[in-house]
Amino acid sequence: MSGLFTSKKVRNYRFKNRIIMPPMASEKATPTGEVTDKTINYYYERAKEGLGGVIVEHAFISEAGRFSKRQLSIAEDSMIDGLSSLASAIKSTGTVAIIQLSHAGCEAYHRCKPFSPSGISIPGKEEINSKKLSIGEISEIKTDFIKAAERAMKAGFDGVEIHGAHGYLLNQFNSPLTNHRQDKYGGSRENRARLSFEIAQDIREVVQDKLLLYRLGAVDQFEKGLTTPDAIWIAKELVRLGVDIIDISGGLGGYRGSKNTEGYFVTVAKEINQNLTKPVIVAGGITSPEYANKVVEEEKIDFVGIGRAILSRPDWPLSAKKELT
Ligand SMILES: Cc1cc2nc3c(=O)[nH]c(=O)nc-3n(C[C@H](O)[C@H](O)[C@H](O)COP(=O)(O)O)c2cc1C
């Protein structure tokens, strides 16, 4: 049996293989963010083909953190029924169902003045005029994350993933490029990551024995931005505070290299993984079964995220299994 198709237990959850569908915005929700039949079919069609786990796309935790028009919402209790149907559809296939919780920060640019840690926007989007969050507003955002996690639990998800990558709010806090605060949420590496740590700690209490993942923007890919040693330190702290799986990605304004290079975050993920006692997921340009298997068997990374390849070929896991056996 190839490494890619061995099962792995994390807490009480058995992933039947190492293939994860990473969060990918499908833009299939209603304008108010409800799950639609199209959302359910989209996930079910992929989960039934033999994925180990699905991380449902970024769901906004509050209107102020919404990224786009047809984004999924987890901001209201009225969303729970739809989310519950979605979780059941994924779980009915024997696939572990996680949902990503997100606040887009300054990227919530449908707002006339979105929030950000310091009123500084992410590189490449300098035109965004954002508002520096007050301590009170930061505290409200924490509460929004926690309530969103509670809704995910009520909906029956096996776990939640905190979105700390791709230039969204928590990545904006973690990065020295976008966080110039001088209070307890800015300055040192520890202060910049404090909001993520507090949210992770509180959500651990909410999810209890279910799974807690953190998607870490491990490298900003800009001079003076977050680097691998920072990411190792943040990841170790997150694990200490109760995160079960670190999901590695990067790029403060999105990934800046060639998206066709296979496994473009594998080197970073490997380094982080070697320093952790908990599993890691790595996504980024992985398309061939042999390479995905090599990431697990040789690079010793527990899970591979297969995104765009599964978007275009839902049967990727089944054909990978045939190819590898
Ligand atoms: C259409 C699309 C939507 C995405 N939406 C999200 C998202 O909601 N949350 C997130 O963390 N990453 C998102 N991503 C990034 C993917 O999770 C993944 O990291 C990236 O596509 C690289 O993996 P791949 O090369 O296998 O596609 C998205 C990517 C694509 C292509």
Question: What characteristics describe this protein?
Answer:
325 residues, alpha/beta, globular, NADPH dehydrogenase activity, NADP, FMN, YqjM-like, OxRdtase_FMN_N
Structure notes:
The chain has 325 residues and is α/β, with parallel strands linked by helices. The chain has a single domain, classed as TIM Barrel (Alpha-Beta Barrel). Helix content is 35%, strand content 17%. It is built from ten helices and 13 strands. It has helices spanning 37-47, 80-91, 135-154, 169-174, 189-207, 228-240, 266-274, 289-297, 308-312, 316-324; strands at residues 8-10, 13-15, 19-21, 53-60, 72-73, 96-102, 115-116, 131-132, 159-164, 211-217, 245-249, 280-283, 303-305. An eight-stranded parallel β-barrel has the order 3-4-6-9-10-11-12-13, surrounded by seven helices. A two-stranded antiparallel sheet has the order 1-2. Strands 7-8 form a two-stranded parallel ribbon. Strand 10 (211-217), helix 6 and strand 11 (245-249) form a beta-alpha-beta unit. Helix 3 (135-154) packs parallel to helix 5 (189-207), helix 5 (189-207) packs parallel to helix 6 (228-240) and helix 6 (228-240) crosses helix 7. The protein is globular and about 55 Å long. The termini are close together. Flavin mononucleotide (FMN) is lined by residues 22-25, 57-58, 100, 163, 165-166, 215, 249, 283-286, 305-309.
